[in-house]
Amino acid sequence: TEQAMTTRSNTSRLEARRASYSTAPTTKLFLKKEKSKTNPPNLKTWVALAIEMNIASDNKKKVWDEIETEAPSPTLGPFRSIHSETLAARPASVFREGTSSKAIVRTKSEPAFNTWNLTPPNLSEDGVRPSPLKARHFQRQSLRDDAFDEITDKSQIVETNKGLENQFKMTKNEDGKEVLQLGTLEYLLRSMVRNMDHEYMDNIILAHPFLLSSVDFLQGLIDLYQEVQKDPTPSGALAKTRIVNIIKRWRTYDDLVVMKDPKIKELAVSFAKQQIANPDQNTQAIRSWLNFLLQQYQEAEQQRSPGEHHSPAPSRKLPKLKKSISFGILKRNLTVTTACVTDFDPVEFAYHLTAGDWKLFRRIRTSEFIDKAWSKEETRAKESPNIVRLISRFNHHTFWVASEIIQTANSKFRVAVIERFVDIMKALRQLQNYHGVMSILSALNMVAIQNLRSTWKHVSKKHVAIIKEMEEIFDGAKNFKNYRELIKSIDPPYVPFEGLFLTDLTYCIDANVSVEDGMYNYQKMEMIGSLMKVMKRVQASSFGPEITESEFLKEFIARSLVLNEDELYRKSLEETKRQSKIT
Q: Are 327 and 345 in contact (CB under 8 A)?
């Protein structure tokens, strides 16, 4: 009885709200109530559909009725209302199941292109500004891999369309559910527009350059847009807005590809100008964003430097690291030629190394991974400059650490040098710079350093325990299981070990075919997309202002004598013989 009364009460409120929408001139949001098949019995789901259409107020109730009956699009077929973002491309967690059915209403006073804002709206469910705590929750939520919650089964993201039965192939996953295995470009794009599943969409946007040309991808979206433009129904208008939303999302993920590639630029500018000049068939919101895109192209030469194409999220509060000694370089009159690594505070050194690693990691673009350009001598410098710099920096620091240890003549002082590098490694671990941790750990585990047995006997148990802890994290057994679990359990910002990421990506590229039976391998897209999403999520974060590079330390490392592997081994043998004679 209570349930029936609640349903009648909700229905009355819905009718009243619909009546207000049909008369309010500023309202551009409609609500649709449906019963989700995947939800428990008697559980209602409220789905918000933001329809950007230039229509008179007295026609809005008619539009509502057409949408409520799910009038099929002659081009794409019926749309499924699977989550709340639909047009706004915002996390559906704002409209979670069981929450209030009150809508977030956008008025004409707000900019039209805010419809495609990727961040959650700065409004609560009752239409008022949330508390700062709740706003921060929304910001954190947008950084998570699962920020885009679905209210339908993700395995059922693909529906058949008439005339497209031969353009896809399904397979069964480990749970026995049917999932998409192969699909033509036309089928992938139509499914993406029809379903607007964020996970499915992100996989295609991030991984398509590994399987096909980005120019073909954009041309396919433009062709589909021109096709649905002939559909006068609300479903056609919804499809057009979704296609533009996909282009904007693509630009958000890989700004440099969309903005700098001359072929993509020419195609996008031509499309934008054509649609802006056609106001009868395009909504004000679509034309506003396309005009904004044209302005961005016009200002492309004044844009940010390569790689700085992310809008960083608020920096996470880092753990307070206690400095063991004063860093007073100037007070102690140190110079880059007279200083030793033991003269520096390990925390300051860790800040310096982390700032440099982070700067290079954030500059890496998706295009640098295509065709494994970083591994090819003829293309690596031009096609993958930031990956090559990060690898070179890792190798240089590894051999620099080993050289500093092996070139220390005094045995007792060599022990102090090893312990100082272990302290730096511990500080890097606390800063979540696992790329830097691995560079020092690799140096400590080199054969030339491990041969110094008489030196290792005097290293304190505390420092030996720290080394063993790091070795357990990066244990290669079971495909780096410990490190992978650790990365999943922490929040950005952090600097991942790039070597393992490149290994995983190489496996995804080499172990799976790109095209089979004339169709693209979506399973390969899904694997590559999951890797790229993690990288993009981390790149979108930010360290605090205290993480800065030191010019003194940069020059100190650059001026140090770095030995190669053969020289290190020869020096190690000489030191071993000398110690044996002393014994």
A: yes
Cα gap 175→122, rounded to integer Å: 38
Backbone angles phi, psi at 520, to 5 degrees: -80, 145
Q: How many CA atoms lie within 13 A of 350 on its CB side?
A: 28
Which of 380-384, 400-404, 575-579 is predicted with the least confidence, judged by mean pLDDT? 575-579
Contact 199, 193 (CB under 8 A): no
User: Residue 261 has what pLDDT?
Assistant: 81
Alpha helices for 161-261 (secondary structure H): 185-195, 198-207, 214-228, 234-253, 255-260
CA–CA dist 494, 482 (Å, integer)? 16
Three-class secondary structure of residue 497 per DSSP = coil
Task: Identify the residue whose tokens are 């391998």.
Answer: 521
Q: Say how many CA atoms lie within 13 Å of 88 toward its Cβ.
A: 28
Q: What is the pLDDT of residues 298-340, one digit of tens each?
A: 876 555 443 444 444 445 545 555 554 444 444 456 777 788 8
CB 564 within 8 A of CB 406: no
Q: How many CB atoms lie within 10 A of CB 154?
A: 13
3-state secondary structure of 364: coil
pLDDT at 7 over 90: no
- Nearest CA among 179, 200, 175 for reference residue 190: 200
Q: Cβ distance 52 to 34 under 8 Å?
A: no
**What are the beta bridge partners of residue 520?**
183, 515
Alpha-carbon distances of 329 from 325, 342, 343, rounded to whole Å: 11, 12, 8
Tokens 């300051």 belong to residue: 348
Q: Please determine, for residue 578, whether its predicted confidence score (pLDDT) is greater than 80.
A: yes
Q: Fill in the amino acid letter for 406.
A: I
Categorise residue 196: left if φ over 0, alpha if ψ from -120 to 50, beta otherwise. left
What residues pair up with 49 in beta bridges, in sequence order?
A: 30
Return d(Cα 170, Cα 207) in angstroms, integer. 19
Cis peptide before 493 (omega within 30 of 0): yes
pLDDT tens digits, residue range 45-97?
233 333 333 333 334 333 333 333 333 444 444 443 333 333 333 333 322 33
Strands 45-50 and 29-34: antiparallel
Question: What does residue 407 show for φ and ψ, rounded to 5 degrees?
Answer: -90, 0
Cα 490 to Cα 534: distance, rounded to the nearest angstrom: 12
* Residue-level length of the chain: 583
| Residue scoring higher pLDDT (336 or 530) | 530
Give the integer Cα–Cα distance in Å for 262 and 251.
14
d(CA 245, CA 237): 12
- The predicted model gives 173-185 an average pLDDT of 91
| Three-state SS at 66 | helix
CA distances 69 to 33, 34, 103, 151, 418, Å, are: 11, 11, 20, 20, 73
- Please state the pTM of the whole predicted model: 0.70
Q: Which of 354-368, 523-537, 569-583 has the lowest mean pLDDT?
A: 569-583
In degrees, rounded to 5, the angle at the alpha carbon of residue 470 between the alpha carbons of residues 468 and 471 is 60
Q: Which stretches of 44-167 are assigned E, i.e. beta strand?
A: 45-50
